[in-house]
Write a structure and sequence with these properties.
Keywords: Cell membrane, Membrane, NAD, Quinone, Translocase, Transmembrane, Transmembrane helix, Transport. With 536 residues, this protein is mainly α. It has 20 helices and four strands. Strand 1 and strand 2 form a beta hairpin. Helix 11 packs parallel to helix 13, helix 13 packs parallel to helix 17 and helix 17 crosses helix 19.
């Protein structure tokens, strides 16, 4: 098919853009179908959305060679706005696979009353009122939920293939705006509304800062395409050098927010607690994939000439982020309401710090090959993190069905009541900690550590080593709780409700995450080999 632009006929490679397009088309189809389906048939929307995501992921197979591009300049066919290279295909696989697991995880949540407690663990009239409001508004509207999830996934799949700043910003907002609504979709829940508002205001502020940075970069270089920006920044007019540096820094600030890097991380714990558990899982994985892929594109492809500016800045951000996240996770009290989700929220901040380390190392690389290897470490770590973190959230969703307050202490004796769920959660936590049998977690951390050492960032490697030791404590503490003897009888107010049958979709989500984690642990070197050729 062709499109007329500026008097020139430009071909459009529909296969290259198929993955995000299929997700977007499925979103529109769900929205229209929701108007005509009776309430009893609403679960069909979830299965249709899941099928749409599966089809979008399958369409990545013809793109695995990474040699397709489209929306190129007619005057210069090598300068394109969309490029389905190896990096884009790998991240799209992560995004669509993560969205697919999220869809399976969401089935029971969307079509049942929400089980999350609206209070913060305090007793009293206010907590009772909030709990009552949550019970009244716990049911999620199916059509809106699936439309928003598919729309966000479409934007997230578009972003890693974007090769100009305009498309990059549009894709980022398409991925983010539906996420705001997903967080606040539980009607009548005070925590959900507050979380959505905080997430929205913080993100809009970061986007405004990033757009100012993009405008500065455009003013200094005269182009929005990443390849042309890289060439122009190499010999920018000295009078515009300060403007270019300011543009680079402000652009990075916007992506630092999306990655939950310190000091732009303050929205994470409250947003994760206020959001439905599947949405929190989605933000922890796909939200981070969006932020990190955008950060990689602008730093390595657009701003290599200013590596001396963003390299040290990202290194400092990595050290601060992993330290703040792990220390805050260490301080979570087991008896506090929603402490399980809060611990995973702060853990995700700490993991974001590890993911930033290879990006910082790329700023110190002597060649494009070294930079590509460093970025491959981030991609490999992200693949491991996506599988096991989604699995951990899936088990949390399972436990919250009978323990709505979501305390860490509720997991005591889980092995006695649900042995397979306890074994799966233990495996996921050990992967995040980097301990056997979670070999993929250990391998990913060693790879990231090596990237820092090879780049001469010895101080950052030391900070990472200290943080890994800190994280071991709270991961192992949670793992040990799973296998302790069940606690004695509690007071009636805190007693768990009777166990319910586990929905097949939730079981499938836990099982798929566990199988993927075990498979990755069996051949971790293949992950790095697959990811190392993903850029440049």
């Amino acid at each position: 098919m062709t499109a007329l632009a500026g008097g020139y006929v430009q071909s459009v490679d529909w296969l290259a853009i198929a993955p995000p397009t299929i997700a977007a088309v499925a979103a529109l189809a769900v929205l229209v179908a929701d108007l005509f389906l009776a309430e009893r048939n609403k679960p069909l929307l979830g299965w249709f959305a899941t099928a749409g995501l599966a089809l979008a992921a399958l369409l990545l197979l013809p793109l695995r060679a990474g040699d397709r591009s489209t929306f190129c300049l007619t005057s210069d066919p090598d300068v394109c706005s969309y490029r389905a290279d190896e990096f884009a295909v790998v991240i799209q696989f992560l995004v669509l696979g993560g969205a697919l697991l999220t869809a399976l995880l969401s089935m029971s949540t969307v079509h049942n009353r929400g089980s999350k407690d609206a209070g913060d663990g305090d007793t009293g009239a206010a907590g009772a009122a909030d709990a009552g409001a949550a019970a009244e508004g716990g049911k999620l509207p199916a059509g809106e939920f699936w439309f928003l999830l598919l729309s966000s996934a479409a934007g997230a799949a578009l972003l890693p293939a974007s090769r100009d700043l305009a498309t990059l910003v549009v894709a980022l907002e398409v991925a983010s705006l539906p996420a705001f609504a997903l967080v606040g979709l539980r009607r009548g829940d005070r925590l959900s509304s507050e979380a959505a508002l905080k997430f929205f205001l913080s993100s809009v502020t970061a986007t405004a800062v990033m757009l100012m940075g993009v405008s500065f970069v455009y003013a200094a270089t005269g182009s929005l395409h990443l390849s042309r920006i890289a060439a122009a920044l190499g010999h920018v007019d000295p009078r515009l050098d300060t403007l270019a540096q300011a543009g680079v820094v402000l652009t990075l600030v916007g992506f630092a927010f999306k990655t939950a890097a310190v000091p732009f991380h303050f929205w994470v714990p409250d947003t994760y607690v206020g959001a439905p558990i599947p949405v929190a899982a989605y933000l922890s994985v796909i939200g981070k994939a969006v932020g990190f892929s955008g950060l990689i594109l602008v730093t390595v492809l657009a701003f290599p000439a200013y590596a001396d500016v963003w390299g040290p800045a990202v290194a400092v951000l990595a050290a601060l982020t992993m330290t703040a996240g792990n220390v805050a996770a260490l301080r979570q009290r087991p008896e506090r309401a929603h402490s399980a989700v809060r611990l995973l929220a702060w853990s995700s901040v700490g993991q974001a710090g590890y993911l930033l380390v290879p990006i910082a190392a790329a700023g110190y690389a002597d060649s494009s090959g070294d930079a590509a290897h460093a970025i491959g470490s981030t991609v490999a770590y992200a693949l491991m993190y996506a599988a096991v973190n989604l699995g951990a959230f899936a088990v949390v969703a399972l436990v919250s069905r009978t323990h709505p307050t979501g305390r860490l202490s509720d997991y005591r004796g889980l092995y006695a009541s649900r042995p397979l769920a306890a074994l799966a959660l233990g495996f996921f936590l050990l992967c995040l900690a980097g301990l056997p049998p979670g070999v993929i977690g250990l391998f990913a951390k060693v790879t990231v550590f090596s990237a820092a050492v090879d780049a001469g960032l010895g101080w950052l490697a030391v900070v990472m080593a200290v943080n890994v030791v800190i994280a071991l404590y709270y991961y192992l503490q949670w793992t040990a709780v799973l296998f302790r003897a069940p606690a004695g009888a509690r007071a009636p107010a805190g007693a768990p409700t009777p166990a319910r049958a586990v929905p097949a979709s939730l079981t499938a989500a836990i099982g798929l995450a566990a199988v993927l984690g075990v498979a990755l642990s069996g051949a971790p070197q293949l992950v790095l080999r697959f990811a190392s050729g993903a850029l440049l």
